[in-house]
Every structure is written in C-alpha cells, then in structure tokens.
C-alpha cells in the first residue's frame, strides 16, 4: 500500500487531518507526519487533534513517499515560509505524484510555484491566490487535475475528498 507524507504545523484544521488520515489508514495506507521538527507536538486550531511529528523536514526525503497530503487551517501559511518544505512539495508536483490539498492547503502550493495551468479548488478566500499563481480555480466539492492534484474546499467536502483520495491510490 501507499506511504503518504502529511505536511503539518500548528493550527491545522483538525478534521482536515483526522478525517483523511482515518480514510487512508482504513484503506491500508500509511500516513506519516512531516513538520519542522521531529518529535514536536502540533495542535489543531480547534484543539481537538494533537499530532506528534514523525519526521522533521530536514530529514524527510520526498522520494520515500507515494503521495502528499496537505491539511488546511493556518498550517499551510506557516509551512510556506520554509524553503525545505517548498522543495519537498515541489518534488511531488515534478514527479506527478498525487497531492491531496484541502481548504487553505493551496497556500503552500502557491509558494512552491506548482499550480500554473492546473485545475484546483480551495476555500473561497484562497481562490484569488491560486488564480494569481496561474491555476484554473473551479468552485466544486472535489477537483481532480490530470497531474494527480486532488483538491477540496472545506471540511463540508471531506466525504467526497476522502473517497477521491482513496480511489486515486488504487
């Protein structure tokens, strides 16, 4: 089964991590957390989910993973300031490995400069950013780009998002 890297930082949207993680694990996949520092704890913005980071970005090797999950919330905005995180993200785009992006997650993809010409959705307030990055913004529950980028808007779309990301790994 697939090994999924999840890039995550404090104030992630709780359900945008816990729900896809549960769906992926139920399908037999391994979900690994990548953050700024291995062993550190990050907390969701609602305080419902706490995550211990498996690997720091300085030790994580993107070639060890089959797909990338980016939960939303404030986490992507914090991560996009880190050059190693941007390089890690670019690997998945350049290799056309699946990237699973929800809500505010495209902020990381904007800074990695990997959206040009791709179809994507996001939470409404990030739509201008993805358009300015050269992406084709589509306002629907799930958007699947031929490159392997699968995106969704908000926690309300999690059932459709989870179904799409699990199907992409079959």
UniProtKB/TrEMBL annotation:
Keyword Acetylation attached: no
Every DJ-1/PfpI domain range: 3-167
Alphabetical keyword list: Hydrolase, Protease
UniProt cross-references to Pfam families, sorted A to Z: DJ-1_PfpI (PF01965)
GO biological process terms, semicolon-separated: proteolysis
Keyword Membrane annotated: no
Any GO MF annotation of the entry: peptidase activity
Family of this protein: Belongs to the peptidase C56 family.
Protein's name in the database: DJ-1/PfpI/YhbO family deglycase/protease
Species of the source: Fundicoccus ignavus
């Amino acid at each position: 089964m697939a090994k999924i890297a999840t890039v995550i930082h404090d104030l992630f949207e709780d359900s945008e991590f816990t729900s896809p993680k549960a769906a992926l694990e139920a399908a037999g996949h391994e979900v690994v957390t990548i953050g700024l520092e291995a062993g550190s704890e990050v907390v969701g913005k609602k305080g419902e989910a706490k995550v211990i980071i498996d690997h720091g970005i300085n030790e994580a090797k993107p070639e060890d993973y089959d797909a990338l999950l980016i939960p939303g919330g404030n986490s992507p905005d914090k991560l996009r300031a880190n050059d190693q995180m941007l390089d890690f993200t670019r690997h998945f785009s350049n290799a056309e490995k699946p990237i699973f992006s929800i809500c505010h997650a495209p902020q990381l993809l904007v800074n990695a400069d990997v959206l040009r010409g791709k179809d994507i959705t996001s939470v409404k307030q990030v739509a201008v950013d993805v358009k300015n990055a050269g992406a084709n913004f589509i306002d629907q529950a799930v958007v699947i780009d031929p490159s392997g980028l699968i995106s969704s808007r908000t926690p309300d779309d999690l059932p459709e998002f989870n179904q799409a990301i699990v199907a992409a790994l079959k």
